[in-house]
């Protein structure tokens, strides 16, 4: 099967969903697993927390980690069906998945996430700060105080809350991996608040990597371009969804599975000399920073 058939066997339809979108209702459904990759035990015996692990990029990462022998705690907000589907896939590969439901914008819930993970698995080695929300607005004046606060709480405040709760349990060799975005570097005219949070995540990643260097805890980030996830039909106008990703040099959106290996790499000893860095996965768009 060639690349075009593998990743774009169906054209993306113009569609919308209520926030937050559900992967099970997308047409076509995103690709989150490479069934030909059975895993190599690269994360055997380790434990990871993955926010937004029920769908999209988070689901792809959770499945890839499980195939590498990692226990996963999947944090999600509303989509019970997506979360249980992901858990089923992981268990089908012989892995272990703990589902934790709630709002990561609440610092007390972030403490609860870590407590439940430690209680279930006895350790924590990897933290993937991935969950995010976005709301398209054509004008700055249309961004309400409520939207602004909500976006910042989910996208960047939660990273502070959860990382703060996790740090007492992380140790030498542990990894923190944040999901930034190409919008942090190139901006986006209709995603002012979202892009601003992603810029904050990039600064957080670089600053935290310096802060934790003496503890030998590595902090890196992945900056995706246009990836076909539930965030898209739930936040972009129907007509724009049909053309999503076609402005890239590869002329298509990326699939979540195409990012998973980067998150695996950043969690393993293969990236032992990397911290404060960004991996750009965006269909060939050049980011000069």
UniProtKB/TrEMBL annotation:
Keyword annotations of the record: Oxidoreductase
Domain of life: Bacteria
Biased composition (Basic and acidic residues): 1-13
Keyword Oxidoreductase: yes
Name of the coding gene: yhdF
Family stated for the protein in its record: Belongs to the short-chain dehydrogenases/reductases (SDR) family.
SUPFAM superfamilies hit by this protein: NAD(P)-binding Rossmann-fold domains
One GO BP annotation of this record: bile acid metabolic process
Protein name: Putative oxidoreductase YhdF
Region (Disordered): 1-30
Annotated InterPro entries: NAD(P)-bd_dom_sf, Sc_DH/Rdtase_CS, SDR_fam
Record flagged with keyword Oxidoreductase: yes
Pfam families: adh_short_C2 (PF13561)
GO MF entries: oxidoreductase activity, acting on CH-OH group of donors
Gene3D superfamilies according to UniProt: NAD(P)-binding Rossmann-like Domain (3.40.50.720)
């Amino acid at each position: 099967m060639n690349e075009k058939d593998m990743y774009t066997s169906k054209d993306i339809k113009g569609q919308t969903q209520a926030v937050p979108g559900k992967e099970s209702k997308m047409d076509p459904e995103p690709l989150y697993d490479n069934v030909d990759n059975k895993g190599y035990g690269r994360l055997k015996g380790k434990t990871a927390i993955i926010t937004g692990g029920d769908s999209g990029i988070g689901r792809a990462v959770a499945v890839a980690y499980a195939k590498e022998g990692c226990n996963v705690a999947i944090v999600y907000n509303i989509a019970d069906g997506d979360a249980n589907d992901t858990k089923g896939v992981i268990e089908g590969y012989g892995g272990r998945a703990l589902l934790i439901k709630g709002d990561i914008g609440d610092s007390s819930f972030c403490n609860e996430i870590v407590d439940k993970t430690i209680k279930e698995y006895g350790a924590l080695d990897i933290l993937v700060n991935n969950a995010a929300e976005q709301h398209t607005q054509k004008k700055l004046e249309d961004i309400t105080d409520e939207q602004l606060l909500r976006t910042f709480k989910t996208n960047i405040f939660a990273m502070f809350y959860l990382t703060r709760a996790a740090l007492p349990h992380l140790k030498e060799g542990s990894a923190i991996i944040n999901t930034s975005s190409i919008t942090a570097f190139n901006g986006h005219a209709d995603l002012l608040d979202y892009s601003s949070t992603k810029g904050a995540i990039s600064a957080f990643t670089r600053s935290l990597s310096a802060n934790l260097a003496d503890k030998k805890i590595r902090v890196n980030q992945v900056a995706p371009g246009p990836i076909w996830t539930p965030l898209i039909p739930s936040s972009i106008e129907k007509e724009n969804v049909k053309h999503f990703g076609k402005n890239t040099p590869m002329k298509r959106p990326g699939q979540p599975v195409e990012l998973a290996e980067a998150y695996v790499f950043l969690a393993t000893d293969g990236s032992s000399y990397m911290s404060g860095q960004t991996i750009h996965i965006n269909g060939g768009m050049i980011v000069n920073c």
